[in-house]
């Protein structure tokens, strides 16, 4: 196969990560879109000895269970690439992928994988959206999402079926206001604009909404008028802020935040606790499923009430506080200072006293505790880890095992790195007892899991 070759392929399955898997002359081909049972035409974009990558050109004969896409942006957006598969088929596929990944990457042939926990509603579940600005050739600012597989093309958002309906309303208003007031967005090849991102967080369990405009400067004509106009769109909008970001990185992060309407913070309630949420804060983007995920983590810990729990990668303290309520003591470790401060404030808000937070990288904190170089070392009965998609560093796995907790609860957003880390833990005497997949992100290939590991005896 050569790059730019056009091939007719029969899609056999979806790979972990959502790409269609097909074969041509014994070579595995991964296509950016397609469902099992489709016959497609695809163009090769990368060719190696044992595999190739391709982009979908046409679906020539659709699979029997293919359903029409609900979203008008389905052919452009890279987000909901599984929405043409019935939801029941999506969750069955994800459950199977977890079991297969544990077997192939983790070497766990007989993993106890519970039935996946589906979403009660697969639509309008996402509580946070990050939209990007781009300057068209005529200077008009475009506000929307990146086209699938690109960094320099954005389509204007008209609707989004996984986000709150308020998102499209705020985006439409902001796009029009930015054009009318001459706000300058970045050009694809020139990082010379001012407005960069629009972040909208609409929390379903409290109904509170925050809108954050991220720009490189405060010099935006009519900024206050825009903020008041956004707040007038819905009584749910409790705060509107300007976040300043002067870096050249393409990340929706605020170096400094200025409240234009309200305090800059909103509240969400999860399993009876209140959490203050600001622009840079991490919060699971599906609040309803987050409650199920956290309930599973609490069940996996099998707490009696007299334990010490250590929570690594604790963020703003969501899981730590839930464990503190059920155990004698909980300690969270988090590397982002602002998140640690927010976690402490959340603990005070909820009246939880037997909880503390340590600021530092998990690998470094565990090493310093082991060497006696940092006070306050913890010997946990139960260890909780909720790492980013890259999973755990091998030395963190070793340090976790050295703490000798009787049980480890691993909350994972990536089955592949979960399987890898479970294999490492097995070599250190911790065996997988059970794992439960949770569909946090319907219509996408992403899968969350809660795994329980037990220390081997004998």
Q: Can you tell me the CATH class of the largest domain?
A: Alpha Beta
Shape: globular
| CA(first)-CA(last) distance | 54 Å
Cross-sheet strand order for the largest sheet:
9-8-7-10-11-12-13
Structural class, from secondary structure content? Answer: alpha/beta
- Tally of individual helices: 9
Q: Total strand count, please?
A: 22
Q: Radius of gyration, rounded?
A: 23 Å
**Share in helix:** 10-25%
CATH architecture assignment name of the largest domain = 3-Layer(aba) Sandwich
Low-confidence stretches: none
Q: Would you spell out the secondary-structure blueprint of this structure?
A:
Elements: E1 6-10, E2 13-14, E3 20-24, E4 27-31, E5 39-47, E6 51-61, H1 87-106, E7 128-135, E8 141-146, E9 154-156, H2 165-180, E10 195-202, E11 209-215, H3 223-231, E12 237-244, E13 256-261, E14 266-270, E15 273-277, H4 287-301, E16 308-312, H5 318-326, E17 329-334, H6 337-349, E18 355-359, H7 362-371, E19 382-385, H8 394-402, E20 407-412, H9 415-426, E21 430-438, E22 448-455
Parallel strand pairs: 4-6, 11-12, 16-17, 16-19, 17-18, 19-20
Antiparallel strand pairs: 1-5, 2-3, 3-4, 5-6, 7-8, 7-10, 8-9, 10-11, 12-13, 14-15, 20-22, 21-22
Helix pairs in contact: 1-9, 7-8
């Amino acid at each position: 196969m050569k790059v730019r070759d056009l091939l007719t392929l029969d899609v056999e399955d979806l790979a972990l990560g959502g790409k269609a898997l097909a074969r041509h002359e014994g070579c595995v081909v991964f296509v950016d879109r397609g469902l099992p049972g489709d016959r497609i035409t695809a163009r090769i974009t990368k060719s190696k000895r044992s595999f190739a990558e391709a982009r979908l050109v046409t679906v020539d004969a659709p699979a029997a269970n293919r359903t029409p896409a609900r979203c008008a942006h389905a052919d452009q957006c890279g987000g909901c690439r599984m929405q043409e598969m019935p939801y029941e088929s999506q969750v069955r596929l994800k459950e199977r992928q977890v079991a297969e990944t544990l077997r192939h990457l983790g070497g766990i042939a007989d993993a106890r994988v519970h039935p996946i926990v589906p979403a009660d509603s697969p639509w309008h579940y996402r509580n946070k959206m990050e939209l990007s600005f781009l300057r068209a050739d005529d200077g008009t600012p475009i506000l929307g999402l990146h086209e699938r597989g690109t960094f320099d093309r954005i389509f204007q958002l008209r609707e989004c079926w996984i986000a709150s309906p308020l998102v499209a309303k705020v985006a439409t208003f902001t796009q029009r206001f930015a054009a009318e007031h001459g706000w300058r967005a970045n050009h694809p090849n020139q990082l010379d604009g001012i407005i960069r991102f629009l972040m909208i967080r609409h929390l379903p369990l409290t109904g509170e909404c925050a809108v954050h405009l991220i720009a490189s400067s405060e010099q935006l004509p009519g900024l206050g008028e825009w903020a008041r106009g956004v707040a007038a769109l819905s009584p749910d909008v409790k705060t509107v802020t300007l976040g300043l970001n002067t870096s050249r990185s393409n990340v929706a992060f605020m170096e400094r935040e200025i409240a234009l309407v309200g305090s800059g913070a909103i509240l969400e309630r999860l399993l009876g606790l209140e959490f203050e949420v600001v622009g840079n804060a991490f919060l699971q983007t599906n609040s309803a499923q987050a409650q199920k995920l956290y309930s599973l983590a609490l069940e996996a810990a099998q707490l009696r009430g007299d334990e010490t729990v250590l929570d690594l990668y604790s963020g703003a303290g969501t899981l730590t506080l839930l464990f503190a309520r059920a155990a004698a003591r909980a300690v969270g470790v988090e590397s982002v200072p602002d998140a640690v401060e927010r976690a402490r404030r959340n603990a005070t808000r909820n009246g939880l006293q037997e909880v503390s937070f340590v600021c530092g990288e998990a690998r470094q904190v565990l090493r310093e505790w082991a060497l006696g170089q940092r006070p306050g070392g913890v010997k946990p009965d139960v260890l909780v880890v909720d790492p980013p998609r890259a999973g755990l560093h091998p030395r963190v796995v070793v340090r976790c095992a050295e703490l000798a907790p009787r049980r480890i609860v691993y909350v994972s957003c990536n089955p592949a790195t979960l399987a890898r880390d479970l294999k490492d833990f097995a070599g250190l005497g911790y065996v997988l007892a059970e794992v439960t997949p949770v569909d946090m992100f319907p219509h996408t290939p992403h899968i969350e899991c809660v795994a329980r590991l037990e220390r081997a005896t004998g």
